[in-house]
Amino acid sequence: MRAHGWTALGAAAAILVSTAGCDWFTRPEPEPIPLRQVVDAFDTNCARVDALTGRVGVWLRAPKKTLFVPFDGRVAFSRPNFLHLEITKFGRWVFDVGTNADEYWFWSREAVLDDQPNVLRRGSMSKLDEGAARGLILPPDAVADALGVSPLLPRPGSRTAVLPEQYDAGYVINYVRILDRRLRLTRKAYLDRFTGRLTRIDYFAPDGRRVLFITYDAWRTTGDVTLPKRVTLHIPDADAAVRFDLGRLKLKPPLPAEIFQRPTPPGAAVIDLDKAD
After folding, report:
1. What fold characterizes domain 35-272?
2. Which among 9, 79, 142, 275 is placed 20 to 30 Å from 199, CA to CA?
3. What is the pTM of this model?
4. Closest CA to 40 of 146, 145, 152
């Protein structure tokens, strides 16, 4: 009787295994989403975002260090290209990055780009677009890319090449972007062809060096808008990285221009990138 019971149990298990196996082998593979549909859906999602603002968690990994150090941040974004990111530590203002209709800037209390502390670098948007100004190691429009609010396709007039299925998991949107008068950076956005999600953006110099890249670790959906929840900006030349937790950002109507004014940190030296070599 006991042996019979084990035999029956084994037969039942064999049936379950064989049935599960058949189901697994016959389950259809997911169909990739067409490239044009992926791009349209992403850019439509971006267009739904008039503005974002709120506190963000920030972790900085300094050059040649292995640990990420926590900071507090506050970010504001508003169409068409206004951005302001402030970073503090224990209530002390330490970084400021931003752009408005006229200019862009980067300020750091500590020496992060060279040996000079408390330096504010600024330049004119018009000259940057012309390729006549120097860019920044952390350009504001890369921060906008990290927020997931930059369309995949560039503004009219830019050189654009859409290259489908450039790697096994998805698509690449590839175009030249002027971020420095010495560099016409190639921006490559990588998308999963089964989910349509943005997974990474790379910035390449003309010599093939990857000078900046962004990885997207998690996404969240609020109403009909999907935004990144956790992202990391990597700066290979400086061996540094910035990680953002964006889960507390709120969708807003367009924000007032006063939020996006360049700051004047006390005692800061100002470097004009329109004139600097």
Report:
1. outer membrane lipoprotein receptor (LolB), chain A (2.50.20)
2. 79
3. 0.78
4. 152
